[in-house]
Specification:
7% strand, 2 domains, 57% helix, Hypothetical protein af1432, 5-stranded parallel β-sheet, Rossmann fold, 15 helices, single chain, alpha/beta
């Protein structure tokens, strides 16, 4: 029989407690061109051998000491992980019950003892053809899945670049710098991880938090750039940046934009309900909004602006702790205190040019 290369090199394991049967099958297969044939008479070794070699076909006796063929198939099935492993049962038993049970356990075909060479070779060849077709399909699926993952990564990078572009647009209308957005988003990300949020959610917070003040694009210069205190009317105008930001982002279902919209809506809310725009309180405020409130206020206080000097870190930390339970989620302030050395390292690594 002229064997294709893939079938000729297939890894075949023969499991039979009778040594003469193993030797016979090894001879039949080797003489027919199969290059990788292994025999074993102790079924207890099969699991470890298959984990090491990942056989393409197993010829398995049913009646064996220590572990019968049914038990071996049960053990192997736990380690398949969706793979297709042809098992050809070797048996002298021809009764219907044995065959049905073998099929239920995962057997794909039968060889009845005593062996007839032509039947052995044809059944094994047919099983290996199916195995190779399955392996080829798996390879193609893996290639397709990798292409999908690459495309997904490209789309995610495009989303994040869109977010960064929107954030940079906001910088041109405000006195805040891009370094503030970078620092507060990195601080928010670190807090999110520290409180046990999943990595994916923390990464989304990292990207989305830099849009927290996007709506300031729509605030008139006479208010946005005013150096002094606001009157009531000006405060009302300034607070409208939350609604403006939400309108800019709309209701897009993307997790990134949904989170950004939530951050915009909630980062000025306060734990005691005295914030804006809706006066929600406690855990009614999203965790993303509560985290960004802490990171935004701390970095804003400790950063120099044309209209103010930077606060000393100690003073800013003291204020955050005073406002725990009023402005801020007290549990997040506890986490903030524990992370302070890391947060200061983030600030140092991303300092404004003047601070550098």
């Amino acid at each position: 029989m002229d064997l294709p290369e893939a079938i000729r090199n297939a890894k075949i394991l023969i499991v039979d407690d009778t040594q003469v049967n193993v030797i016979l099958l090894e001879a039949i297969l080797s003489n027919s061109g199969y290059l990788d044939v292994t025999g074993v008479t102790d079924p207890r070794k099969v699991e470890a051998m298959h984990r090491e070699r990942r056989y393409d076909l197993i010829l398995l006796d049913i009646q064996m000491p220590h572990l019968d063929g049914f038990r071996v198939m049960e053990i192997l099935s736990r380690d398949l992980c969706g793979d297709y492993l042809p098992v050809v049962v070797l048996t002298a038993l021809n009764d219907r019950e044995t065959r049905l049970r073998a099929l239920e356990m995962g057997a794909k075909d039968f060889l009845t003892k005593p062996f007839e060479q032509s039947e052995v070779l044809h059944r094994i060849h047919n099983m290996l053809e199916v195995r190779m077709l399955y392996a080829e399909r798996q390879r193609r699926n893996e290639i397709l899945e990798e292409r999908v993952r690459e495309r997904t990564r490209d789309l995610e990078e495009n989303w994040q670049e869109t977010i960064r572009c929107l954030a940079r647009a906001g910088e041109f209308r405000d006195n805040e710098t891009g370094r503030h957005l970078l620092r507060m988003s990195k601080i928010a990300h670190r807090i999110a991880l520290a409180i046990g949020l999943p990595d994916e959610q923390a990464d989304i917070i990292l990207a989305a938090s830099c849009l927290h003040d996007l709506g300031k694009i729509g605030i008139p210069d006479r208010v946005l750039l005013k150096p002094g205190s606001f009157d009531d009317e000006e405060w009302a105008i300034m607070r409208s940046h939350v609604a403006i930001g939400c309108r800019i982002l709309g209701e897009h279902p993307s997790p990134l934009l949904r989170t950004a919209r939530t951050v915009i809506l909630h980062h000025h809310e306060k734990w005691d309900g005295s914030g804006y725009p809706n006066g929600v309180k406690g855990e009614e405020i999203s965790i993303e909004g509560r985290i960004c409130a802490v990171s935004d206020v701390f970095d804003a206080l400790t950063s120099e602006r044309p209209y103010k000097k930077a606060w000393p870190v100690e003073k800013a930390v003291a204020l955050l702790n005073e406002e725990a339970g009023r402005h801020f989620d007290p549990a997040l302030i506890e986490t903030f205190n524990l992370l302070l050395p890391e947060i200061l390292a983030i600030r140092a690594a991303n300092a404004d040019d003047a601070e550098s």
